[in-house]
Amino acid sequence: MTTVTRAAPTLLTSPGARLVGKRLLMAVPIVIGVSIVTFWVLNLIPGSAAQQLLGPEATPAQIQALEARLGLDRPAPVRYLAWLGGAVTGDLGTSLVSGQPVAGLLGERLAVSGELVMLAFVISLGLALPVALLAAHRPGRLFDRVSMLVSITGLSVANYVLALLLVLVFAVELALFPAIGFVPLTESVGGNLQGMALPAAAIAFPLFCFYTRFLRGDLVDQLQGEDYIVTARAKGIGPWQVLLRHAFRNSAFGLITVVGLNLGTLIGATVIIEQIFALPGIGQLMLQAINTRDFVVVQACVVLFAVVAVVANLLADLLYAVLDPRIRYGSR
Amino acid sequence: MTGLVGEFATPVAAGEVAEPLLEVTDLRVRFRTRGTVVHAVNGLSYRVHAGRMLAVIGESGSGKSVGSRALMGLLPETAQVSGSARFAGTELIGMPERELRARRGADIAMVFQDPTRSLNPTMRIGAQVAEAVRAHSSLNRRAALDKAVELLGLVRLPAPERRAVEYPHQLSGGMRQRVMIAIALAARPRLLVADEATTALDVTTQAQIMELLVDLQERFGMAVVLISHDLGLAASYAQDVLVMYAGRAVEYAPAQVLFADVRMPYTRALLGAVPQLEREPHSLLPVVPGQPPDLARLPAGCPFRPRCTAADDACGEAPPFTEHEPGHWWACWHADGGEEAR
Asked: Is A114 found in the same domain as A83?
C-alpha cells in the first residue's frame, strides 16, 4: 500500500503505470475490509490465547492477568486500530504464543507455500496448454475424447482425496516420493523437489483438468464460430497457424481471467495440502494459530492471502492489457 | 441437371479463351445435424469466365455463401459436399485438404461480409496482411510486411505505413473492408469471391469499395464473383448475373439480357421488391409474398411453387435449369415473355 504513494507521482505519465496505480489504490479498501472482517470473526471464536497458553487448569484470575499482559483486555476496535497502525508501518506484531515477530514467521513459511503454489501453477498450466491445443486441433478425435474424460474425472475429485491417493500409490506402494516431510531448497534442490512433488501434483491435477477443459472449449468455440478464423483459413495458412496465431490469442483472455482468479484461491488450497504432507507453510501456520487462538498470526495470514488474491487479479488484468490492444488504447 | 451439357454461349470479350475459369456443375451441400438434414445447395451449376464479374443474387439462405465457401473447403466439418467444381481444369471438390490449402488465397481469394468480425482483433493490420503474403511466398517477415504496406496502399488505405501497425478496432468499417481486400489480393488470386462484401457498409462507402473492386479486377485481370442480395449492385457492376433460390440456380444471363428480359417469376418478384424513388410516397413496399422454403424439408417440384403466382400442376415436377435462349438460362415451366419455354 505504501508503494503506491511513492510510485504514483513519478510514473503517472505512462498509462500502464496509471492502471497499476489505480488498481493498487482500489486494493487498499479491499485488504482493510478483509482485515476488519477477519478481526471481527476471530473475536467471535470462544476462548483466548491466554486460556490456551495456560491450559485447562488455569484460574480466571491467572487468565485475566495474562490477557492484560498480552493486551487482550482492551476493547476490540482499539486492538484493531493498534494492529492496523502497526501493519501499515510494516509491523505485524508478535505472536501471542511464541512471542516471535509475525513478519519473521510469515517470511520463512511464505517461501514454502510460495514454492508449492508456483510449482502447482507451472505444472497445471504447462500441461494444460499443450493438451488443450492438441485436443482442439481435432475435436471429437481420440485424443480429445481421452483428455476430456481425464479432465472430468480430475474435476470430480477433491484435492485432499487425490493427495491421499497419491501418497498411497507413489509413497507407500512404489516408494518413489516421501509421504511427508520437507527439505529446504538451500539444503538440497533434489530433496526439496522430491518432497514437493506429491503435494504440488495434488494441487496441480484438478487445476490442470479445469484449465484444459476451459481452454479446449474456448478454442473450439473460436474455431467454429468466429469469422476471423474463416478469413485466416481462406488465406491458405496451415491449421496449426490458425490455431496458435488466431484462436489461441483470442482464447487466452478467458484463460487469463480464470487463472488470475484461481491463483488467489490456490493459496487457500495449500492449507489442507500442507497439513496432509506436513509442509511448514503458511497454511500449516494458520491452522496452528487458529487452534492456539493466536489471533495476531491468523490475522496476518488472512491479510496475506487477501493481498495475494488482489495481486494475482491485478497481474491478470495487466496481462490482458499486454495481449488485447483494445484495452491498452481504451484506457487512455 | 442434364441440360447443362450444352455449351454456354456467354458473350466473351475479344482475345479471351472461351474455357471458363471456374465451372461448377451440380454442386450439392448438405448439413447433417442431430437427425435433420439441411439441403443448403441443391444442384447448383454456373460458370465464371476470366476477367468477368458474375453476380450471384438470392435471398438469405438461398445457398449463395455456402456454395462459394464449399469451393475452397471452408465449410464446417458437418457439411457434405458433392458435385463438381473445376478451377482452370482442376477438380476442387474432394481435393485433399493440404492441396486445397495451397490454392486458398492463391487461386481463389475471399472477402467476407462483416469486416469487423472477419479481422483478428488481437493482431496488427500489417501482420494480418503479411500472413496472407507469406502463406504463398518465401518472403521473410520483413519483406512480407513491406509487401503488406504496398498492398494496403494498393487498396487506397490512407497512410498505409501507419495503419499497418494499428489494430482493426482503430479503423472504420470501410477501411477494414479495404484491409480484407488487401488480404485477398496478397497472393494475386485469379478469382476473387466477394461474399456480401459491401452489405455491412453505408451506401457511400459501398460505392467506393465497389469502384475499388472493379478497378482491381481490371488491373489484375481477375474474375470476380459478387455474392449479394442487391439486384441494383448486380445491374451496376456485374457482366453476368446468376439468380439463386433454395440452393439452386433459377436464372442466368448476361446482365443486359437479364434485366431487359426477365423470364423467371422469382427474378421478376425480386426486381419488383427493389425500392424505387419514383414510387408514391408512403405506399407499401412490394415484397415477395411468403417465406423461403425450409431447407430441411424441401418440397418436391419447383421450390418457388408455393410463392409463385404462375404456379400450376406442372410445377409439381422440378423444372430443369436449361439454356432456353442463347446465353439465357432459366428453370421454370411458365417463363413469361419470349417464345414458350420447354
From this structure: no
CATH of the domain at A278: 1.10.3720.10
Pair A136, A196 in one domain: yes
Give the closest-approach CA distance of A147 to chain B in angstroms. 21
* Within-domain flag for A178: yes
For A223, nearest residue in chain B (alpha carbons): B76
Place of cell 457498409: B201
Same domain, A84 and A115: no
Return per-residue pLDDT of chain A as tens, 332 residues.
Answer: 444 444 444 445 566 677 778 878 888 888 889 889 988 888 887 777 777 777 778 888 888 888 887 777 888 888 888 888 888 887 888 887 788 888 888 888 888 888 899 999 999 999 999 999 999 998 889 999 999 999 999 888 888 888 889 888 888 888 888 877 777 777 878 888 888 889 999 999 999 999 999 999 999 999 988 899 999 999 999 999 999 999 999 998 889 888 888 876 777 788 889 888 888 888 889 988 888 888 888 888 888 888 888 888 888 888 877 777 777 654 43
What's the total number of domains in chain A?
A: 2
Give yes or no: residues A164 and A265 share one domain.
yes
Q: To probe the interface with A, which of B87, B92, B118, B119 has the most A CB atoms within 10 Å?
A: B118
ipTM: 0.85
- Picking from B58, B55, B88, B59, the residue whose alpha carbon sits closest to that of residue B71 is B88
Question: Range of A285's domain?
Answer: 110-291
Q: Can you list the positions of beta strands (E) in chain B?
A: 22-33, 36-48, 53-57, 79-87, 90-91, 108-111, 191-195, 223-228, 240-245, 248-254, 322-325, 328-330
Cα distances from A303 to residues A34, A88, A92, A113, A182, in angstroms, run: 7, 12, 10, 15, 25
Pick B101's closest partner by Cβ from A236, A249, A329. A236
